[in-house]
Amino acid sequence: MTMKRVDRESKRRNSEVLVIGGGVIGSAIAYYLSCDGLEVTQLEAAHQANGASGHAAGMLAAGLEHFSSEELRRWAQRSQQLMGPLIKELKLHSEINVGMNDSGFVVPFIKDRKREEEFSETIERAKQKHWWNKSKLQDEIPWITKKAEGALFYPQEHQLLPAELTKAYIKGAQKNGAAFIDHCTVSRLLLDNGRVTGVETNQGTYTADKVVIAAGLGSDAILRSIGTQLNTYPVKGEMVALSMQTTQTMNGETLRYTIYTPDVYIVPKPNQEIWIGATSIPYGNDYKVSASGLNTLLHRATGWVPGIGEASFIRTWAGLRPQTVDGLPYIGAYSEVQGLYLAVGHYRNGVLLSAVTGETMSRLLSGETEDEIGIRSFSASRIIKERRGIYCC
Ligand code: GLY
């Protein structure tokens, strides 16, 4: 073995920070920490973006998504602001095209006699925003159902390819000297005198002064090795991808805008693909796509854009979103073990929240407090209270 190889190997075995998880959250953290000049090793049990990140639609919709608290909404908005410049920076480092679609999101409305009042209120409220009346909506999206009376336009909501974003973070981190080890399953955390010292894996021991657990639904099993339990659970989501290349009604053209409604979203992707999602099945814990789930998605999508019925089927898949009992992620230091940090439970917005999670972890590891950053309610230490059955602060 040459000297150089020995150096690299020992660096991998002993780093300043170990990041557990090769999804979009772990990868963003590895990228941000490596930009701070820290020696980072990232461990992934399967391969990059294998979990929720690789199955997501990739929406960056801080204005439209529901968040469990104002603090979480503000955090998501911060992430949305970071994302534009970050993607440019990642492109320079990684040369990966993340398929950013910045055309904006459209929320169409159908006039419904039963909900007439609600509809007029929406229009009133929307007048100061971007309200498209029926003719503007038909001009912009000629294929949308003629029943749509108008739409709200959200130009600041964007979307991208989540697996590509994950790869770009990893490649960017590697350029900064980070190591990425795949097929590396963490079996337990190593502690010494109340401090974390590393992890034991199927590929041997990795040591570090700081360990960040960002393994989504896989995080629980790792924490159990030190007698701690997370209150996360899966929320299954089914999706389907279609090709618009052959549609006659739409002259083989695809949608430019993402269509976002309360019951379905239609997300245009490169190569004239559209991704339609998603069902929401709490505690669904498998990757099967049911006929009824698929039927629901297609029925809803063709209700909004009838031409979609002519599209050809490409594939369907399901993902498991990591949700927490109070709907807030666990972010920050776990106070019972020095050097141990969590970044888990981003539910359906991991892609959007990846940038701010990376930034937050960089600030925490540089010595800022949760209060200073404004993320107190995400405190990882609340699992200690949850364990005792106390569900508030
Ligand atoms: N990010 C949207 C969803 O999980 O359905």
TrEMBL record:
In the record, what terms sit under GO molecular function?
A: glycine oxidase activity
Metabolic or biological pathway: Cofactor biosynthesis; thiamine diphosphate biosynthesis
EC assignment = 1.4.3.19
At the top of the EC hierarchy, this enzyme's class is oxidoreductase
Domain FAD dependent oxidoreductase residues, every copy: 17-363
Q: Where in the sequence is the signal peptide annotated? A: none
Q: Which reaction does it catalyse?
A: glycine + O2 + H2O = glyoxylate + H2O2 + NH4(+)
Membrane spanning stretches = 16-33
Write down the Pfam families for this protein, in alphabetical order.
DAO
Name recorded for this polypeptide:
glycine oxidase
Per the UniProt record, the source organism is Paenibacillus polygoni
Gene name of the record: thiO
